[in-house]
Amino acid sequence: MPIDIDARYRDAVQYIWTGRLKQREKQTEAGKIDAGNRGDVTGGGHMGALELLVKDLLIEFGIDESSIFTKQKLELPGYYRSTKKWDLLVVSRQQLVMAIEFKSIGGSYGNNLNNRTEEALGNAVDVWTAYQEGRFGTGPKPLLGYLFLLRDEPKVLKPVSNKEPHFHVDPAFVGASYAMRAEVLCRRLVLERLYDAACLLLSTNEAATRITEPADDLTFRRFVAVLRGHVVTFLDSQ
User: Fold this and answer.
1) Which helix (H) or strand (E) holds 52?
2) What is the pTM of this model?
3) Which residues contact 195 (CB under 8 A, 6 or more apart)?
4) Pairing of strands 95-105, 143-151
5) Res 43: pLDDT
6) Are strands 95-105 and 88-92 parallel, antiparallel or unpaired?
7) For the ranges 53-67, 86-100, 201-215, which has the lowest average pLDDT?
8) Which DSSP letter does residue 237 get?
9) What is the pLDDT of residue 176?
């Protein structure tokens, strides 16, 4: 594991928030002001700093740069739909090696977290079914990764009530904050083997961001360690 990995990922997260603030300023100057916080979360490409960091790490682990895709050629065939664009792909010798999603929420936490959950589940089911149908070559099973960045602010850490008109919710969500709900999501995505690696980061949106990793099993280091292990296995199989 690179000894400077902590500093590198913290710099990447800081760059993400800086980009979002610039996006909001740009929208304001253009007279396009989104409701609430949406000005700094609706601009595309802001997770690019973390995508680039993961790409660099994969190259350091031995993956050829030409096999990593982050800007284009990101579509994978599905089973329930024709194709879906991922955020980072590793494709080598006509084999899918790795597919990773980089997602974030900076506002409208209730609706956005539900949307992210539906996306994560649907994408995983779709791609794994397509894999079983032989869409990604005949090599070893690919890795699916999910990295989730959540804005750290008071409303994210407060307990959220549940509406239960007919049945009780899962106890894991009773009195849980949005941050805890995100943690449950990421952990269960891995426990249910929908994704092979997941990471949850909480970060304040400020000039000197404060980054929190609320769960030991969902840290960036652990996420990268799983990616590295998969790369080693892939390279050994070549």
Assistant:
1) helix 48-61
2) 0.88
3) 120, 124, 144, 145, 146, 189
4) parallel
5) 35
6) antiparallel
7) 201-215
8) H
9) 96
- Classified as helix, coil or strand, 88 is strand
Tell me how far apart the alpha carbons of residues 178 and 173 are, in angstroms, rounded to a whole number: 9
Q: What is the pLDDT of residue 148?
A: 97
Residue 10 near residue 27, CB atoms below 8 Å: no
108-137 pLDDT per residue, tens:
898 999 999 999 999 999 999 999 999 998
Distance CA 11, CA 101 (A): 19
Distance between CA atoms of residues 159 and 178, nearest Å = 7
User: Contact, 224 vs 217, CB < 8 A?
Assistant: no
| Per-residue confidence (pLDDT) for residue 184, from 0 to 100 | 98
d(CA 160, CA 177): 5
DSSP assigned state of 199: E
Note whether 91 and 97 are within 8 A (CB).
Answer: yes
Could you give the CA distance from residue 99 to residue 127 in angstroms, rounded to a whole number?
A: 10
CA distances from 119 to 27, 33, 190 (A): 27, 26, 15
